[in-house]
Write a structure and sequence with these properties.
about 400 residues, alpha+beta, 3 domains, 5-stranded antiparallel sheet, about 35% helix
């Protein structure tokens, strides 16, 4: 094959490879567009459902409140009517009894007048005596109209106006949540989550971070506070976790919509102390070590279970309590694990000790709460893998490695 043919063949191969890469990139972008469209339509459907459900609940609640108020007012009308009509009924019965008595007296009087001469005197005498007993000049008092209730309903449009004003401002639709996750950084046994505000008109008062395992449907709270980053610990390595964040506006009680969930994971094993070292007691998670004072002469260097610290990371020793200081008290990192070595003051190790340089630092460490170490490369070694280190403790009392 001639040189020209070989060049054309090579050019054709490169064009084919470029076309394949181009097609692959376009397919990825199509997938991205499909995901974006799915997110828009899915969130729109969820928002419609949320709006309809919320306003239906409001309608039901408002209708119930109005019905309850109407029932209370009608009951009040019934009570006033009953209390007011009862004495009128009693008065009516008294008057009707008087009318009946007067009718009977009239009939007797007319009969006495029409009776014969022989009976007239006796009949008239009996009638006159009965008339005197009835006290025809005594009349019951009937209340004037101004003295009896005249019910009315006091209604105005202020409630309707206020309701209309509040309804017009109730609820809103946002195209994006006010906060979004900005960065997920793996840490030993955890993920550092950073988030930021993306809505300039939103003033956050508190943030709320939640996470869940990829195969779980239940989120759990990881952090509520004012910071914009949080280290979520106790995560299993190489397992996907979903993170989401929301915020509560200043002066508000309800939380904002959740951010778009982001998937993160860590490939780094958590910091754990090496178990089985004489002179130390470890917590159940092996991240807290306490010197056992009942074992005098023991308690040399306590190494981490693995080389879990890498350049560029921040390693924090959190001091939760301290006892009597010892000249061997120290903490630091080393590039190799030497179980037979009872000191950190050696090659390939960096430590802070009460006996060397930072006397006041470790001696008063509890007032510092934590001591952070950070390493970076100053020379690129021949090997390609980044160097790793063992977090270490000297003869110290109680520490937590985060």
């Amino acid at each position: 094959m001639s040189i020209e043919a070989e060049a054309l063949l090579q050019e054709a191969k490169e064009s084919i490879e470029a076309a394949q890469n181009y097609r692959s990139e376009l397919q990825q972008r199509l997938h991205g567009l499909s995901q974006a469209r799915k997110q828009v339509r899915g969130s729109a459907s969820q928002t419609r459902d949320a709006l309809q459900r919320h306003f239906q609940e409001l309608q039901t609640a408002v209708s119930r409140l109005l019905t309850e108020r109407l029932s209370a007012l009608l009951q009040e009308v019934d009570n006033i009517e009953l209390d007011s009509v009862s004495p009128l009924d009693d008065c009516q019965k008294l008057i009707e009894h008087g009318v009946s008595t007067a009718d009977e007296l009239l009939r007797e009087g007319e009969a006495a007048i029409r009776c014969g001469i022989n009976e007239k005197e006796d009949k008239l005498g009996s009638f006159t005596k009965k008339a005197l007993q009835i006290q025809l000049d005594s009349l019951p008092e009937v209340p004037a109209l101004v003295d009896v209730p005249c019910l009315s309903a006091q209604l105005d449009d202020s409630l309707l106006h206020m309701f209309r004003t509040h309804v017009a401002r109730h609820g809103s639709v946002a195209s994006h949540p006010p906060v979004q996750i900005e960065e997920l950084v793996e840490r030993p046994g955890g993920v550092l989550v950073r988030w930021c505000k993306v809505d300039d008109d939103f003033t956050p008062q508190d943030y709320r971070l939640q996470y869940r395992r990829g195969n779980s449907s239940q989120y759990e709270d990881a952090y509520i506070g004012k910071d914009t980053e949080f280290l979520v610990l106790h995560l299993d390595p190489h397992i996907d976790h979903l993170f989401r964040v929301c915020a509560r506006g200043e002066g508000r009680t309800e939380w904002s919509p959740w951010s778009i969930p982001q998937t993160g994971y860590t490939t780094l094993a958590p910091h754990e102390w090496l178990p089985g070292v004489d002179g130390y007691i470890l917590s159940s998670r092996k991240n807290i070590a306490m010197r056992n004072d009942s074992s005098p002469g023991l308690g040399g260097v306590l190494y981490s279970n693995s080389a879990s610290y890498f350049c560029g990371q921040t390693l924090t020793f959190k001091i939760t309590a301290a006892g009597q200081t010892d000249k061997r008290d120290s903490l630091g990192v080393c590039a190799d694990s030497r179980p037979a070595t009872d000191s950190l003051q050696r090659d390939q190790a960096v430590c802070i000790s009460t006996n060397v340089s930072a006397d006041s630092l470790v001696a008063s460490a509890p007032t510092y709460n934590a001591i952070a170490l950070q390493a970076s490369r100053v020379r690129i070694p021949a090997r390609s893998n980044p160097p790793s280190f063992y977090p270490t403790l000297g003869s110290c009392h109680l520490y937590t490695v985060l």
